[in-house]
């Protein structure tokens, strides 16, 4: 985010930037980290943003219907997107497994499509299986 502010004429108001994460705990950690760096943040709850001044932070469940100039989706890691519990359903409840996989993929899609100008997706360790085909395509020089 510092480079967005640093480029002359390209600064994006923090209210037009959102950080989306898979869990409430990660959202709280992100708000704390931004505060340590002097950046205000606004929590997105089920009824919408709790204010207007600052970077908007929330889970994937909270972004439907919202739009931001810049979107950061962090924690798109295998075991978080989809959650580990969903993967465990594969063997003992395949129908529910498929439903939950579609739901998790849809949440990621909705989050990614909230960006007007740019979206950045981050993960640690192993990326979400939803990104596997995209990562392979990027390595081949496609989309």
From TrEMBL:
InterPro entries linked: DNA_helicase_UvrD-like_C, P-loop_NTPase
Entry keyword Iron: no
Gene Ontology terms, MF aspect: ATP binding; helicase activity; hydrolase activity
Pfam families linked to this entry: UvrD_C (PF13361)
Record domain UvrD-like helicase C-terminal: where: 50-125
Keywords per UniProt: ATP-binding, Helicase, Hydrolase, Nucleotide-binding
Lineage: Bacteria, Bacillati, Actinomycetota, Actinomycetes, Kitasatosporales
Protein name, UniProt field: DNA helicase
Signal peptide range: none
